[in-house]
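Lay summary. Proteins are chains of building blocks that fold into shapes, and those shapes determine what they do. In this project we predict the shape from the chain. Here is one chain we studied, written as its sequence of building blocks.
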Amino acid sequence: ERASTDDSPEPSPGSSVELPGENEQPSSVRREENLEALRSEVGRNEKSSSNIRQSTESRQSKSGLPKAIIVVHLYGMPAKMDRILEIAGRYGVPVIEDAAEALGSTLNGKNCGNFGKFSVLSFNGNKIITTSGGGALLSDDAAKIQKARFLATQARDDAPHYQHSELGYNYRLSNISAGIGRGQMEVLDKRVAARRANHEFYFQNLGKTYWQPSTFNQQPSTSNPQPSTINHQPSTSNPQPATRNPKPSTFNLQPSTKPSPTGIYFLPEPSGYFSNRWLTTILVNPEETGGVTREDIRLALEEKSIECRPLWKPMHQQPLYEGCEYYGQGVSDFLFEYGLCLPSGSNLTDDERELVIGEIKSVLGE
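And here is the predicted shape, written in a compact code that computers can read:
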């Protein structure tokens, strides 16, 4: 699903690629390649986007600028692309846009997948459009797309026999799979509408309250391996990698903010953003639910054969990347600690959604 077409030398030991805190493991970053993967949390607030600036400056002073910044539109919600592109442009670092979850999402009227030097889409079985596997690489650089196609189809030289001057891969999408995908593109708007309808149904029945990140207070950090706080003190002029697992933040809502009647919060859609709501995600505040956690809800639904999952486990918590440097303020740790993905299939019926709501309310004691 990803192919490098950069004419510059391949990343060498000590090179770095900046990744967001929450993401599926990218196939282009492998431990055996000895790449130093920097985790930069790309959130909706100014402090989160500043992590990119801090980590870029730090790497510049240590081993040179990162080869790229990989930005992920999580769960279909567009990232803060204007700010990210501004920082990337300042340092001349290309942006690779992971729009795997955001087909059909837009930012200020521009479709996700059109912001990066390269952009990637996923047609995996759980995506809004599926070919059962594979994806697409997007770019407005025709020469690099041609090079990517060459590498993705075994890198065969122009010869009557099989000859290879470069290492190639078999990343092609079969014509049958491509045909299935093209057919589904015609109903993309209907799929997006169905996912957004799921989100609205859950929102109306589980408290109708959006999460306001600015209302969450910092807790003192600790050396214990616990999820991180949301807000740390402003960075110094010499950015250093963050504590990997500081103490978790609590919800501590300010008096001016309306608390949720259910203790459940939803992700707001900022002005100019249009999310396909690929998955509906919630945050569960145990302080407002009588101690009920997102894991209590997940396990209760599992007993009824209703699949739910926590939000993505942060990259810097993955055993594969133990020892890699991490820059962040604990946003992804916080989301992993309190967040849950609800069933969000495009074909969910009202009865199925009512069943999910009923089980959640039963756990909450309603």
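What the prediction tells us: The chain is about 25% helix and 15% strand.
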